[in-house]
Amino acid sequence: MVESHSRQLASKWVKTAALLSNTLLAAHVPPTRIYSAENLKSMLNEHEMVVIKPVCGAGGHGVIKVQKEGSGYTYTYYSKRSYASSFDRLYSALSRAKKKRSYLIQKGIRLATIGGRPIDYRVKYVKTDTGWVYRSMVGRLAKPGLFVTNLCRGGTMMTAAQGISRSLSSSAVASKKQEMRTLTVTATRVLETKFPGIGHLGFDYGIDKNGKIWIFEVNTRPQ
């Protein structure tokens, strides 16, 4: 039996800070900061590509990818790509798009792809009377033209094994799935210590072109 009332934590920032408190997990969390003009400028200078997303939000809603391009910047919101010739113009455009919502900035990860489309992974982990169990581990392939992989945005679901073998290699399947499980167990232990009462977690993992696994976020209301 699953816990019927598991604790929910809407803030991505609170959960990210908890993961960063653990050395093993911190190495797998992309550099993340609270959104501000100063943080955006320094992160773009350092990483050239960032993703900004609402501190509270789900389903890929409101997520914007920003890249340095020559002397200007491109930003992609859903499938619409726009150009800003200066940082001030970029910041104004993003302020209009984000409205008054709190955002955070995360280093952009160049994910492994299938046919040029990025893929990431969702691991559902649930607490039952006998302990934590895996409910699913699936790959989510972005709809052509989109960078978000959410199924509600037209992403395609496949098994994690299919995703790993098609985007990396079939020889990587067992080790990458095991690594995601190890990270899931460690992260759950950290989160449960800090937030007693959680019982239903959805981990979003990405694997970059070099095969490194990244923890993008942990959902306490996984869709």
TrEMBL record:
InterPro entries linked: ATP_grasp_subdomain_1 (IPR013815), YheC/D (IPR026838)
Organism listed in the record: Paenibacillus terricola
Protein name: YheC/YheD family protein
Pfam families: ATPgrasp_YheCD
SUPFAM superfamilies: Glutathione synthetase ATP-binding domain-like
